[in-house]
Amino acid sequence: MGLGLLPKHWLTPQRLLGASVVVAVITIALKTLAWYITDSVGLLSDAMESLVNLASAIFALMMVTIAQRPADEDHPYGHHKAEYFSSGFEGILIIAAAMGIMWAAGHRLFDPQPLTQVGWGLALSVVSSTLNGLLAWVMFRAAKEHRSMALEADARHLVTDVWTSVGVVIGIGAVGLTGWLWLDAVVAIGVAINILREGVHLMWRSSQGLMDEALEPEVLQQIQTTLAEFEHHTIRFDHLSTRRSGQRRFVDLHMHMPASWSLGRAAAVRASVEQALMSAVPGLRATIQLLPNDVEAHFDDPRDLI
What we know:
- The chain has helices spanning about 15-40, 40-65, 80-110, 120-145, 150-180, 180-210, 215-230, 265-280; strands spanning about 235-245, 250-255, 285-290.
- By secondary structure, it is mostly helical.
- It has two domains: about 10-210, Up-down Bundle (Alpha-lytic protease prodomain-like); about 215-305, Alpha-Beta Plaits.
- Strands 1-2-3 form a three-stranded mixed β-sheet, covered by helices on one side.
- The radius of gyration is 25 Å and the shape is elongated.
């Protein structure tokens, strides 16, 4: 059972992102109605962010579908990095939405307008936030299980949307209690700053993935622990390097062993190490180069730096 509640095949990245599209359409309708009946620029900013949710979910669904294509002649290492484009695109959309919110809020700050039917508007906002929060919770857990950057990015954006709505609800409630109309615009500006921060974070994560960021420290520790089980006075490992590519993880290293060993024996030991590594770290692909104990590989040749 996936996540302990639903069958695993129900919680694939495609299905969850499809659900995100549906939820985004529903929340756009709810939040737009909330803005329409209250004329609150804070609720308008909330609705604008949901539009970004919709566009992001659609693009993420496209990228996840591409990422799961098998390797081919033009992409022999697969298409896993497509998910990073999803995260970067979502970050760009979030930043654009933040700028639009600031522009609208800036005008309202100097020309405050009375709010109407605040209770209904806040109720609609709470309902939409509940939907986003539940979906984000499921997506975060599935993102960890599938090691999906696209799912994680969409879940983070949904959480940002939830906190945005919480801030808007508090702000609009304060306007109703105090009569300070300018609070509506201040809340909207606060919302914009919050989602701007999240947009920059997503773009940074995307850039690091595209530049072959190393595996997480805890995963690297798993790799080193597994290699330690094979180390012996006749076997040693060095020049270990790792990288991430979407859902796939890669490790490259050298394994030194006695020069007197036959090729068959050396290959059999290497196969055992590779299998142990891939069993210890899901989604790992290990590449091990065999070298005699008296041979060292050097990577400091100036020609390698050109």
